[in-house]
Target: Mevalonate kinase
Amino acid sequence: MTVSSAPGKVYLFGEHAVVYGEPAVPCAIERRATVTVDPRDDDVVRVVAEDLSLNGFAVEYSGSTDEHPDVDVPTPLVEAAMGYVDAAVDQARDAAGAPDAGFDITVESEIPLGAGLGSSAAVVVAGIDAATRALDVELSPREIADRAYQAEHEVQDGQASRADTFASAMGGAVRVEGDDCQPIDAPSLPFVVGFDGGSGDTGKLVAGVRALRDRYDFAAQTVETIGDIVREGEALLADADAEAGADPDEDLLEALGELMNFNHGLLEALGVSSRSLDSLVWAARSGDAYGAKLTGAGGGGCIVALDPTPETETALQYTPGCEDVFRAELATTGVRAEDGEVRDE
Ligand SMILES: Nc1ncnc2c1ncn2[C@@H]1O[C@H](COP(=O)(O)OP(=O)(O)OP(=O)(O)O)[C@@H](O)[C@H]1O
Ligand SMILES: C[C@@](O)(CCO)CC(=O)[O-]
Ligand SMILES: [Mg+2]
Model:
């Protein structure tokens, strides 16, 4: 049996624009998905994913998505829901040259689904690591990131960047621009996450931005301007030259917060915010956060704010429609074995 975990993430800046080659800075956070894999003697894949509740049903099915799942919901819904796990299994089989490998898989996760915290990337990254190790293949975190990106790309109909999967596989703060993915040094940023209880469909939201961008030059320019915000933010982080994990100074937080606010405004213009996300963003700002923005694909789910004091958490807790508030620590480790195996670096 192999067990692997991988973290979710928040975007300091740059979601959506990163899909079109602009840079982005996602940061891995200490909320993890854990995948347990037991190899089988046959070619069946059996997945237990209790968090995956469709119309109130937990999904458990056998035989990859080719066989009829044992739940009382329409097959296309289950197929859509299981897409990421299936894609991770395909990548692991491919990496091991074992197209007929069967597995019993259990997915457990602390990351709300479809809420902008990268649950899909964490499940895919942890799934590929656990399933390849179950087949006696050890991939480096970069190789896992690359395969996890292929999986997300496939499930999201060709509309995915490397950002979520790279952050989840490597941990820490990272910078992604097209195929260029690098870890970066960032101070310990005081992230506060507010969750509206909702979710958005990443593939659909990305398709919506693409349509706007194809239709209007000013939407294409908006995407480029998000890239400018990211470049400005990176320069601030580089100038601050803070040691990874050090406490950031107030000037840096103020400047980063201003850029986050600007970034949120442009995401809103691109149609990926929502009434409740906007309301959480404004609650965080009135709670004295340095800045606040939606994180991830949007449509519903989470916002991220910067505040070292408890004020933003308190303001969010008292905001109608806010289901959960928590402080998100930077996850310094990306994908890792939870079964005692030590990775060769
Ligand atoms: N615990 C889980 N068990 C099984 N599948 C999961 C789990 N968590 C996430 N997934 C898969 O990931 C999908 C959600 O991915 P999606 O990309 O829409 O949102 P996200 O990754 O949480 O947010 P974002 O991409 O905006 O950061 C779920 O529909 C499911 O297919
Ligand atoms: C919206 C998006 O930029 C981030 C989703 O967390 C999509 C992607 O990068 O694949
Ligand atoms: Mg996702």
